[in-house]
Write a structure and sequence with these properties.
Elements (H helix, E strand, L loop, with lengths): L1 H16 L2 H36 L1 H17 L5 H13 L4 H18 L8 H13 L16 E6 L6 H14 L4 E5 L5 H14 L2 E3 L8 H14 L4 E5 L7 H18 L6 E7 L5 H12 L4 E5 L9 H9 L3 E5 L7 E3 L2 H9 L5
Parallel strand pairs: 1-4, 1-5, 2-3, 2-4, 5-6, 6-7
Antiparallel strand pairs: 7-8
Helix pairs in contact: 2-13, 3-4, 4-5, 5-6, 6-13, 7-8, 9-10, 10-11, 11-12
Length: 356
Protein backbone atom coordinates (compact mmCIF):
# COMPACT_ATOMS: atom_id res chain seq x y z
CA UNK A 1 0.00 0.00 0.00
CA UNK A 2 2.80 2.38 0.92
CA UNK A 3 4.45 1.65 -2.41
CA UNK A 4 1.24 2.56 -4.26
CA UNK A 5 0.93 5.84 -2.33
CA UNK A 6 4.55 6.71 -3.03
CA UNK A 7 3.98 5.93 -6.68
CA UNK A 8 1.00 8.31 -6.80
CA UNK A 9 3.02 10.99 -4.98
CA UNK A 10 5.92 10.54 -7.40
CA UNK A 11 3.60 11.11 -10.37
CA UNK A 12 1.91 14.07 -8.67
CA UNK A 13 5.30 15.59 -7.82
CA UNK A 14 6.35 15.31 -11.45
CA UNK A 15 3.13 17.04 -12.55
CA UNK A 16 3.56 19.81 -9.99
CA UNK A 17 7.32 20.33 -10.05
CA UNK A 18 8.65 18.43 -13.09
CA UNK A 19 10.94 15.43 -13.29
CA UNK A 20 14.03 15.20 -11.10
CA UNK A 21 16.18 16.18 -14.10
CA UNK A 22 13.95 19.20 -14.77
CA UNK A 23 14.09 20.24 -11.10
CA UNK A 24 17.90 20.00 -11.09
CA UNK A 25 18.03 22.01 -14.33
CA UNK A 26 15.80 24.72 -12.81
CA UNK A 27 17.95 24.92 -9.68
CA UNK A 28 21.07 25.16 -11.84
CA UNK A 29 19.47 27.91 -13.95
CA UNK A 30 18.61 29.86 -10.77
CA UNK A 31 22.19 29.53 -9.52
CA UNK A 32 23.58 30.62 -12.90
CA UNK A 33 21.19 33.60 -13.01
CA UNK A 34 22.22 34.65 -9.50
CA UNK A 35 25.91 34.30 -10.39
CA UNK A 36 25.38 36.31 -13.60
CA UNK A 37 23.63 39.11 -11.71
CA UNK A 38 26.45 39.16 -9.15
CA UNK A 39 29.04 39.28 -11.95
CA UNK A 40 27.18 42.13 -13.67
CA UNK A 41 27.01 43.99 -10.36
CA UNK A 42 30.75 43.57 -9.78
CA UNK A 43 31.54 44.59 -13.37
CA UNK A 44 29.37 47.70 -13.02
CA UNK A 45 31.17 48.57 -9.78
CA UNK A 46 34.57 48.09 -11.47
CA UNK A 47 33.55 50.24 -14.46
CA UNK A 48 32.41 52.98 -12.09
CA UNK A 49 35.71 52.88 -10.22
CA UNK A 50 37.64 52.91 -13.51
CA UNK A 51 35.68 56.02 -14.56
CA UNK A 52 36.59 57.76 -11.29
CA UNK A 53 40.26 56.80 -11.65
CA UNK A 54 40.39 58.18 -15.21
CA UNK A 55 38.30 61.28 -14.47
CA UNK A 56 40.23 62.25 -11.34
CA UNK A 57 43.69 61.52 -12.77
CA UNK A 58 44.72 65.21 -12.82
CA UNK A 59 43.58 65.78 -9.25
CA UNK A 60 45.14 62.50 -8.14
CA UNK A 61 48.48 63.22 -9.78
CA UNK A 62 48.71 66.72 -8.29
CA UNK A 63 47.54 65.77 -4.79
CA UNK A 64 49.50 62.53 -4.37
CA UNK A 65 52.70 63.95 -5.83
CA UNK A 66 52.54 66.95 -3.47
CA UNK A 67 51.99 64.70 -0.42
CA UNK A 68 54.86 62.39 -1.42
CA UNK A 69 57.24 65.32 -1.93
CA UNK A 70 56.28 66.62 1.52
CA UNK A 71 56.91 63.23 3.12
CA UNK A 72 60.28 62.83 1.40
CA UNK A 73 61.29 66.31 2.53
CA UNK A 74 60.55 65.70 6.24
CA UNK A 75 61.88 62.87 8.38
CA UNK A 76 59.53 63.67 11.25
CA UNK A 77 56.05 65.09 11.84
CA UNK A 78 56.33 68.57 13.33
CA UNK A 79 54.76 72.03 12.95
CA UNK A 80 56.67 72.69 9.72
CA UNK A 81 55.27 69.47 8.27
CA UNK A 82 51.70 70.43 9.20
CA UNK A 83 52.12 73.97 7.80
CA UNK A 84 53.16 72.58 4.42
CA UNK A 85 50.38 69.97 4.51
CA UNK A 86 47.94 72.84 5.12
CA UNK A 87 49.21 74.61 1.99
CA UNK A 88 48.77 71.46 -0.11
CA UNK A 89 45.16 71.05 1.07
CA UNK A 90 44.36 74.71 0.36
CA UNK A 91 45.93 74.42 -3.10
CA UNK A 92 43.55 71.50 -3.73
CA UNK A 93 40.62 73.93 -3.37
CA UNK A 94 39.62 72.77 0.10
CA UNK A 95 38.35 75.81 2.02
CA UNK A 96 40.55 77.33 4.74
CA UNK A 97 37.95 76.48 7.39
CA UNK A 98 37.91 72.80 6.42
CA UNK A 99 41.69 72.64 6.14
CA UNK A 100 42.05 73.91 9.71
CA UNK A 101 39.65 71.20 10.92
CA UNK A 102 41.51 68.49 8.97
CA UNK A 103 44.90 69.64 10.29
CA UNK A 104 43.69 69.77 13.90
CA UNK A 105 42.16 66.29 13.60
CA UNK A 106 45.38 64.95 12.05
CA UNK A 107 47.42 66.44 14.90
CA UNK A 108 45.19 64.71 17.47
CA UNK A 109 45.48 61.33 15.72
CA UNK A 110 49.25 61.65 15.34
CA UNK A 111 49.59 62.44 19.03
CA UNK A 112 47.21 59.69 20.17
CA UNK A 113 48.83 57.05 17.96
CA UNK A 114 52.35 58.36 18.63
CA UNK A 115 53.13 58.49 14.91
CA UNK A 116 56.59 59.81 14.03
CA UNK A 117 57.05 58.84 10.37
CA UNK A 118 55.40 61.28 7.87
CA UNK A 119 54.69 58.36 5.52
CA UNK A 120 52.34 56.81 8.08
CA UNK A 121 49.90 59.72 8.02
CA UNK A 122 48.22 58.84 4.68
CA UNK A 123 45.45 56.73 6.22
CA UNK A 124 44.63 59.54 8.65
CA UNK A 125 44.36 62.09 5.80
CA UNK A 126 42.04 59.78 3.80
CA UNK A 127 39.91 59.15 6.89
CA UNK A 128 39.56 62.88 7.61
CA UNK A 129 38.60 63.69 4.00
CA UNK A 130 35.92 60.98 4.13
CA UNK A 131 34.47 61.91 7.52
CA UNK A 132 34.51 65.66 6.75
CA UNK A 133 32.18 65.05 3.78
CA UNK A 134 29.99 62.50 5.53
CA UNK A 135 29.78 64.09 8.97
CA UNK A 136 27.02 66.69 8.72
CA UNK A 137 24.31 64.84 6.80
CA UNK A 138 23.14 61.57 5.30
CA UNK A 139 24.86 61.00 1.97
CA UNK A 140 22.05 60.61 -0.56
CA UNK A 141 23.12 60.98 -4.17
CA UNK A 142 20.09 59.33 -5.79
CA UNK A 143 17.60 61.39 -7.76
CA UNK A 144 14.10 61.62 -6.29
CA UNK A 145 12.45 59.61 -9.07
CA UNK A 146 9.24 57.69 -8.34
CA UNK A 147 7.43 55.39 -10.75
CA UNK A 148 3.90 56.43 -9.78
CA UNK A 149 4.12 60.14 -10.66
CA UNK A 150 5.42 62.70 -13.16
CA UNK A 151 8.93 63.55 -11.94
CA UNK A 152 10.16 67.09 -12.55
CA UNK A 153 13.84 68.04 -12.52
CA UNK A 154 14.67 71.76 -12.71
CA UNK A 155 18.26 72.48 -13.77
CA UNK A 156 19.97 75.83 -13.14
CA UNK A 157 23.50 77.14 -13.67
CA UNK A 158 25.50 79.85 -15.42
CA UNK A 159 26.15 79.73 -19.15
CA UNK A 160 29.23 77.66 -19.93
CA UNK A 161 28.99 75.48 -16.82
CA UNK A 162 28.04 72.38 -18.81
CA UNK A 163 24.31 72.67 -18.13
CA UNK A 164 23.14 71.55 -21.57
CA UNK A 165 25.32 68.44 -21.72
CA UNK A 166 24.48 67.57 -18.10
CA UNK A 167 20.75 67.67 -18.84
CA UNK A 168 21.25 65.37 -21.83
CA UNK A 169 23.43 62.95 -19.86
CA UNK A 170 20.85 62.73 -17.06
CA UNK A 171 18.17 62.13 -19.70
CA UNK A 172 20.31 59.34 -21.19
CA UNK A 173 20.70 57.70 -17.78
CA UNK A 174 16.98 57.89 -17.02
CA UNK A 175 15.95 56.60 -20.47
CA UNK A 176 18.28 53.61 -20.01
CA UNK A 177 16.52 52.92 -16.71
CA UNK A 178 13.18 52.65 -18.54
CA UNK A 179 11.80 56.17 -18.11
CA UNK A 180 10.06 58.24 -20.77
CA UNK A 181 11.80 61.62 -20.74
CA UNK A 182 10.82 65.04 -22.09
CA UNK A 183 13.22 68.01 -22.03
CA UNK A 184 11.87 71.58 -21.89
CA UNK A 185 14.21 74.16 -23.44
CA UNK A 186 13.50 76.97 -20.98
CA UNK A 187 16.50 79.16 -21.84
CA UNK A 188 14.46 81.35 -24.18
CA UNK A 189 17.09 84.10 -24.33
CA UNK A 190 19.74 82.12 -26.21
CA UNK A 191 18.78 80.52 -29.52
CA UNK A 192 22.14 78.73 -29.56
CA UNK A 193 21.34 77.08 -26.22
CA UNK A 194 18.07 75.70 -27.61
CA UNK A 195 19.79 74.42 -30.76
CA UNK A 196 22.55 72.74 -28.74
CA UNK A 197 20.01 71.15 -26.39
CA UNK A 198 18.02 69.81 -29.35
CA UNK A 199 21.16 68.22 -30.86
CA UNK A 200 21.99 66.53 -27.55
CA UNK A 201 18.38 65.44 -26.97
CA UNK A 202 18.36 63.73 -30.38
CA UNK A 203 21.68 62.05 -29.52
CA UNK A 204 20.37 60.46 -26.34
CA UNK A 205 16.85 59.70 -27.58
CA UNK A 206 14.93 62.25 -25.51
CA UNK A 207 12.02 64.33 -26.80
CA UNK A 208 12.16 68.12 -26.51
CA UNK A 209 9.78 71.08 -26.28
CA UNK A 210 11.25 74.31 -27.71
CA UNK A 211 10.17 77.95 -27.47
CA UNK A 212 7.86 79.11 -30.25
CA UNK A 213 9.07 81.86 -32.55
CA UNK A 214 9.46 85.10 -30.53
CA UNK A 215 8.43 83.29 -27.33
CA UNK A 216 10.52 84.75 -24.49
CA UNK A 217 8.65 83.56 -21.40
CA UNK A 218 10.27 80.37 -20.00
CA UNK A 219 7.15 79.65 -17.92
CA UNK A 220 5.08 79.44 -21.13
CA UNK A 221 7.45 76.79 -22.51
CA UNK A 222 7.21 74.89 -19.23
CA UNK A 223 3.39 75.12 -19.31
CA UNK A 224 3.27 73.54 -22.78
CA UNK A 225 5.80 70.91 -21.70
CA UNK A 226 3.60 69.89 -18.77
CA UNK A 227 0.58 69.55 -21.08
CA UNK A 228 2.60 67.28 -23.37
CA UNK A 229 3.93 65.24 -20.44
CA UNK A 230 0.41 64.61 -19.14
CA UNK A 231 -1.15 63.95 -22.56
CA UNK A 232 1.58 61.57 -23.78
CA UNK A 233 2.39 59.75 -20.53
CA UNK A 234 5.95 60.88 -19.91
CA UNK A 235 7.14 60.21 -16.38
CA UNK A 236 10.16 62.56 -16.33
CA UNK A 237 10.34 66.23 -17.30
CA UNK A 238 13.75 67.94 -17.26
CA UNK A 239 13.72 71.73 -17.52
CA UNK A 240 16.60 73.89 -18.75
CA UNK A 241 16.69 77.49 -17.51
CA UNK A 242 18.49 80.73 -18.34
CA UNK A 243 21.92 81.18 -16.75
CA UNK A 244 21.92 84.96 -16.42
CA UNK A 245 23.24 85.28 -12.90
CA UNK A 246 24.38 88.87 -13.44
CA UNK A 247 20.74 89.99 -13.22
CA UNK A 248 19.65 88.16 -10.08
CA UNK A 249 16.28 89.91 -9.73
CA UNK A 250 15.14 88.82 -13.20
CA UNK A 251 16.47 85.32 -12.59
CA UNK A 252 14.61 85.04 -9.29
CA UNK A 253 11.40 86.24 -10.92
CA UNK A 254 11.75 83.76 -13.80
CA UNK A 255 12.43 80.81 -11.51
CA UNK A 256 9.61 81.82 -9.15
CA UNK A 257 7.20 81.92 -12.10
CA UNK A 258 8.38 78.52 -13.37
CA UNK A 259 8.04 77.00 -9.89
CA UNK A 260 4.54 78.46 -9.56
CA UNK A 261 3.45 76.93 -12.88
CA UNK A 262 4.98 73.58 -11.93
CA UNK A 263 3.39 73.55 -8.47
CA UNK A 264 -0.06 74.35 -9.86
CA UNK A 265 0.02 71.54 -12.43
CA UNK A 266 2.07 68.76 -10.77
CA UNK A 267 1.96 68.05 -7.04
CA UNK A 268 5.29 68.62 -5.28
CA UNK A 269 7.09 69.82 -8.42
CA UNK A 270 9.91 70.42 -8.93
CA UNK A 271 11.04 67.25 -7.18
CA UNK A 272 14.69 68.06 -7.87
CA UNK A 273 16.33 71.46 -8.38
CA UNK A 274 19.90 70.80 -9.45
CA UNK A 275 22.66 73.40 -9.77
CA UNK A 276 25.34 72.77 -12.40
CA UNK A 277 28.79 74.01 -11.33
CA UNK A 278 32.01 73.95 -13.32
CA UNK A 279 34.69 72.36 -11.08
CA UNK A 280 37.44 74.30 -12.85
CA UNK A 281 36.07 77.60 -11.48
CA UNK A 282 37.08 76.50 -7.97
CA UNK A 283 35.93 78.65 -5.06
CA UNK A 284 33.85 80.83 -7.41
CA UNK A 285 31.44 77.91 -7.58
CA UNK A 286 30.56 78.46 -3.93
CA UNK A 287 29.43 82.05 -4.55
CA UNK A 288 27.41 80.88 -7.59
CA UNK A 289 25.74 78.26 -5.41
CA UNK A 290 24.80 80.86 -2.82
CA UNK A 291 23.32 83.17 -5.46
CA UNK A 292 21.25 80.44 -7.10
CA UNK A 293 20.24 79.22 -3.64
CA UNK A 294 18.70 82.63 -3.02
CA UNK A 295 16.79 82.39 -6.32
CA UNK A 296 15.36 78.89 -5.84
CA UNK A 297 15.47 76.03 -3.34
CA UNK A 298 18.24 73.66 -4.46
CA UNK A 299 18.32 69.91 -3.79
CA UNK A 300 21.74 68.98 -5.14
CA UNK A 301 24.81 69.79 -7.22
CA UNK A 302 26.04 68.54 -10.59
CA UNK A 303 29.80 69.13 -10.56
CA UNK A 304 31.06 69.14 -14.16
CA UNK A 305 34.55 69.04 -15.70
CA UNK A 306 36.20 67.28 -12.77
CA UNK A 307 38.43 65.60 -15.34
CA UNK A 308 39.74 69.06 -16.31
CA UNK A 309 40.91 70.22 -12.89
CA UNK A 310 43.84 69.28 -10.68
CA UNK A 311 42.00 70.61 -7.61
CA UNK A 312 39.71 67.80 -6.51
CA UNK A 313 39.08 69.26 -3.06
CA UNK A 314 36.32 71.53 -4.41
CA UNK A 315 33.86 68.65 -3.76
CA UNK A 316 34.47 68.94 -0.01
CA UNK A 317 34.28 72.73 0.00
CA UNK A 318 30.94 72.87 -1.82
CA UNK A 319 29.40 70.28 0.50
CA UNK A 320 30.64 72.13 3.59
CA UNK A 321 29.90 75.71 2.52
CA UNK A 322 26.36 75.21 1.22
CA UNK A 323 25.47 71.81 2.74
CA UNK A 324 24.23 70.35 -0.53
CA UNK A 325 25.19 66.89 -1.67
CA UNK A 326 27.00 66.50 -4.98
CA UNK A 327 24.60 64.22 -6.87
CA UNK A 328 26.54 63.89 -10.12
CA UNK A 329 30.16 64.37 -11.06
CA UNK A 330 31.47 64.96 -14.60
CA UNK A 331 34.39 62.63 -15.31
CA UNK A 332 34.68 63.02 -19.09
CA UNK A 333 32.91 63.99 -22.31
CA UNK A 334 31.02 60.76 -23.06
CA UNK A 335 27.35 60.49 -22.08
CA UNK A 336 28.33 57.71 -19.65
CA UNK A 337 30.85 59.98 -17.92
CA UNK A 338 28.33 61.88 -15.81
CA UNK A 339 28.51 59.56 -12.80
CA UNK A 340 26.41 59.41 -9.66
CA UNK A 341 28.64 60.78 -6.92
CA UNK A 342 30.16 58.01 -4.80
CA UNK A 343 32.25 59.11 -1.82
CA UNK A 344 34.31 55.90 -1.64
CA UNK A 345 35.24 56.11 -5.33
CA UNK A 346 36.00 59.83 -5.03
CA UNK A 347 38.40 59.38 -2.09
CA UNK A 348 40.01 56.40 -3.81
CA UNK A 349 40.38 58.31 -7.10
CA UNK A 350 41.90 61.29 -5.28
CA UNK A 351 44.40 59.32 -3.16
CA UNK A 352 45.13 56.25 -5.30
CA UNK A 353 48.81 55.31 -5.27
CA UNK A 354 49.71 57.42 -2.24
CA UNK A 355 51.39 54.44 -0.51
CA UNK A 356 53.29 53.23 -3.60
Amino acid sequence: MLGVIMGFWSKLKEKLFGTEEERIAKKQAKIEKKEKLQLEKELKKKNKLDNYIAGLSKSNSSFVESIKQLQNKHNKIDEDFFEELEEILIMSDISTKLVQIIIEECKKEVKNENIKDPKLINEIIADKLFTIYASNSIIDTTLDIKKDRINVILVVGVNGSGKTTSISKIAYKLINEGNKVLIAAGDTFRAAAVEQLEIWANKVGADIIKPKENETDPAAVVYRAIDKVIAENYNVLIIDTAGRLQNKVNLMNELAKINKVLGSKIEGAPHESLLVLDATTGQNGVSQARSFGEATKLTGIILTKMDGTSKGGIVLTIKDEINLAVKFIGLGERVEDLAEFDLDSYIYGLMRGIND
